[in-house]
Amino acid sequence: MTSNAFIAFQKNEETRCIVEAIVDDNPDAVVVDQPAMVKVDVPGRLVIKRATVEEKMGRDFDLQELQLHLITISGHLDESDDEFTLSWEA
Fold first, then answer.
1. How far is CA 75 from CA 48, 60, 65, 70, in A?
2. Domains recognised in the chain with CATH numbers
3. Is pLDDT at 81 greater than 80 in this prediction?
4. Nearest Cα to 38, choosing from 17, 61, 57?
5. Predicted TM-score of the model (pTM)
């Protein structure tokens, strides 16, 4: 059985754009909206693509900026300049 990879952010305008990008790039994403945070669960593998976030924000975006808004993650982390991936796949 595949576990969910997830990421949770502080709730603000920039994370709204990030979450929109995650949902666009991860069709199985489930967004859990809470008063002070937003959590995104994806079965198996969650990918955040720099290009999609830039499109949603309308500006350049360095994936390291995720750290400014991050609360927690679950999954094995793999980062590059273009993608931030969490997974539970072997």
1. 13, 26, 19, 14
2. 4-87 (3.90.56.10)
3. yes
4. 17
5. 0.93
